[in-house]
Design a protein that fits this description.
CATH topology of one domain: Helicase, Ruva Protein, domain 3
Bound molecules: iron/sulfur cluster
Strand order of the largest sheet: 3-4-5-8-9
Order of helices and strands: EHHEHHEHHEEHEEHEEHHH
Radius of gyration: 22 Å
Length: 274
C-alpha cells in the first residue's frame, strides 16, 4: 500500500497510542475500495468515522506485534503465525458481544482486550502494559565444542550474565541476570554456545490509564500451544469475572497473588484441542 506524503502527514496528527490502529483501518478502508494508494481524504474519512462511530469500530480485542518480522536483527524467534492464531482464538470468544453486555454506555477502544507479541526481550511492542504480553526468548546452552576464548559472548551480553574465567569448559551463565535474548548464541563463532530452548515468556495483567499496573511475569518458558492455552484460559476468566467494563488487570488484582499459580495449573492442564 502506497501512502501519499500528505496522507503520511495527516496520520501523524493522530495521537501516538492510536496511530498504528488508525493506520491499519485507513489501509483496510482503501483496500475495500480496491485501491492501492492512500490519500489525505482517506485518512480524514476514517478519522471522522473513528470520532463519530467509535462504538461500531470497537471489535473487542487488539492484537499487535513488534517489527521483528520486518527484518529486525534482534529477533530471537520466528513466531510462526502466532498472531493469526491469537486473532482467531479471540474472534471465537466474541469479546465485543461480552463488552456490549457488561459495559454501561458506548464502547471505547480502552475497553478492548489487548495482546501483544515481541519477538525478543527488547519488548518494543510494550508487553508490560498489555492484558497479555508475549515475549520471544531463547536460552543458551554449552555444547561439547571447545571454546576459543574469543570473548564475543561476554562482549555482546548487555546483562553481564556471561563470565569467561569461572570454568575451564567455557562461559558460565548467571541465570538470574540472563533475559534469554539469544544474542550470545548468534555471535559464538565455534558453536560452543547453542540454543538450548526457544519459546515464549508470558506477562499477564498490564495496563495504563488512571491506575496503571505493570504486567506480572508468569514464571517459565512456554511453547506456542501453551501460550494459546494460557491466553484462552485468561480470556475466559476475564469474561467470567470482569464487572462493568473492568480491565483484566483489575480482575487479576482482585484475584490476588495466587492467581498466577492458578493460571499455570488450570490453563496448562486443559487437554481439549484449541
Ligand atoms: S522486540 Fe526485538 S525483535 Fe521486535 S522489533 Fe524490538 S528489537 Fe526487534
Ligand atoms: S541470552 Fe542474552 S542475556 Fe542471556 S547470556 Fe546470552 S546475551 Fe546475555
Ligand atoms: S563466543 Fe563462543 S568461542 Fe567465543 S568466548 Fe564465547 S563461547 Fe567461547
Amino acid at each position: 500500500m502506497k501512502w501519499l506524503p500528505q496522507a503520511e502527514a495527516e496520520i501523524k496528527k493522530a495521537p501516538f497510542f492510536v496511530r498504528k490502529k488508525a493506520r491499519r483501518r485507513v489501509e483496510e478502508h482503501v483496500a475495500d475500495e480496491d485501491r492501492k494508494v492512500v490519500t489525505p481524504e482517506d485518512v480524514q474519512a476514517v478519522k471522522k468515522r473513528f470520532l463519530t462511530r467509535m462504538d461500531e469500530e470497537v471489535k473487542g480485542f487488539q492484537v499487535e506485534a513488534c517489527f521483528g518480522s520486518q527484518g529486525c536483527p534482534n529477533r530471537v524467534i520466528e513466531n510462526d503465525g502466532l498472531v493469526q492464531s491469537i486473532e482467531a482464538l479471540l474472534s471465537v470468544e466474541d469479546l465485543r458481544g461480552f463488552l456490549k453486555q457488561t459495559v454501561n454506555g458506548p464502547l471505547k477502544f480502552h475497553h478492548e482486550f489487548r495482546v501483544t507479541l515481541a519477538d525478543c526481550p527488547n519488548a518494543c511492542s510494550q508487553p508490560q502494559i498489555k492484558d497479555i504480553g508475549i515475549i520471544g526468548a531463547a536460552t543458551p546452552e554449552i555444547t561439547d565444542v571447545p571454546c576459543s576464548e574469543c570473548g564475543a559472548c561476554a562482549d555482546v551480553c548487555r546483562e553481564e550474565a556471561v563470565t569467561l574465567d569461572a570454568s575451564p569448559d567455557g562461559p558460565v551463565f548467571d541465570w538470574n541476570l540472563c533475559v534469554r535474548c539469544g544474542q550470545c548464541i548468534g555471535v559464538c563463532p565455534t558453536g560452543t554456545i547453542a540454543c538450548g530452548n526457544s519459546g515464549y515468556r508470558l506477562l499477564i495483567g498490564g495496563k495504563l490509564g488512571r491506575h496503571p499496573r505493570l504486567a506480572t511475569e508468569l514464571q517459565g518458558f512456554y511453547d506456542r500451544d501453551q501460550v494459546l492455552r494460557v491466553l484462552k484460559w485468561c480470556v475466559r476468566y476475564y469474561k467470567g469475572h470482569s464487572i462493568g467494563g473492568e480491565r483484566f488487570a483489575e480482575v487479576v488484582e482482585k484475584a490476588g497473588p495466587s492467581f498466577f499459580n492458578h493460571v499455570k495449573t488450570e490453563a496448562l492442564k486443559e487437554e481439549d484441542s484449541l
